[in-house]
Please model this.
Amino acid sequence: MTSTVLTCTSCQTKNRVPDATAGRPRCASCQAELPWLVDVDAAGFDEAIATSSLPIVVDLWAPWCGPCRMVAPELELLAAERAGKLRVVKVNVDEAPAVSARLGVQGIPTMLLFVGGAEVGRQVGALPGAALRSWIDQTLTG
Model:
């Protein structure tokens, strides 16, 4: 099982957290909830979606995509703001083309919202931070 090192926004302690796990990761030092943003490959995608008890925003992106690079800092900020309430999973479509093909993704960036392992929302194209938060909130409450 792969893992990611997450830095606590409260005390800056580095914490190793499995990419696919249920629950809410907490800092080993101060017990603050950690911003959960991980990169997964094709092998880890299904497990990451299936094991999460939190809603997940999946960002399908590529390093050469300008709009994808514009959305990335907003997703990092969102993961920090909603630590313990939302998980962000990034999938590089160049490294995991089978994931994007299976999900029917035809353009990037594409953000998918999963709850309980099922897709509940899809946003194609970059959004500014406020619009991204609004999309997530409306999709989760709708």
Notes: Strands lie at 3-7, 14-18, 36-39, 56-61, 87-92, 110-115, 118-124. The radius of gyration is 14 Å. Residues 22 and 51 are 5 Å apart (CA to CA). The helical segments are 42-51, 66-81, 97-102, 129-141.
